[in-house]
Amino acid sequence: MTSDAGRSRPFGLDLTREFADLPFDGHLERRLSALGGQFLDQSAYARLIAEDPLVYEVYEIHLPRTAGQLLHGISIVHPGRVGDEYFMTKGHFHAVRETAELYHCLRGRGLLLMENEEGDCAAEELAAGRVVHVPVGWAHRSINTHEHEDLVTFFAYPGHAGHDYGTIERQGFRKVVVARGGRAEILDNPRWRAGR
Ligand code: S6P
Ligand code: ZN
Questions:
Q1: Which residue, 31, 74, 102, 132, could crosslink 59 as a Cys pair with Cβ 3.0–4.6 Å?
Q2: Is pTM, for the whole model, over 0.90?
Q3: Looking at residue 36, what is its pLDDT?
């Protein structure tokens, strides 16, 4: 994921095929233990951590992490919940705040939860065919709200963006997405605290 090895020849990818068969350079797996402290229901988290389920995977093309490049790949968030809260990515700001990102949902259903440092929050629907623009300065987290299908998105962002995971690890997102009566509901995060 961090390699600077690059591809200098044009290439194409057929995203209708099985991703494991495509020529991606990197494959990252994140298990529940990588999301410690992010879920509201800590006892549900503690019960699940024994099996440490696979929460999401990222397939990426290695390109130089420099301005002018377009880093891209596929993110797959598996279905599941911790208590009432759906499986989700860690979420991050870009280290260089002035960098945006595009998500194109290929399969499944979910939300792209976003917030900026001024305290504005947004949640855009992810469903096959939808494209979501993450503006500069907005943290983003993908959440799979389907009971049993993967949430699959194609993403692209500037090569020099970098990742700031620490801010979200410390303070969380201002909103949480939970299952209520079979539907996804967006609630205020009672554990959120600025600069925690
Ligand atoms: C990178 C982009 C995605 C995420 C991926 C996993 O800027 O937003 O590739 O890395 O969806 O999420 P996270 O929060 O663990 O990086
Ligand atoms: Zn990003």
A1: 74
A2: yes
A3: 94
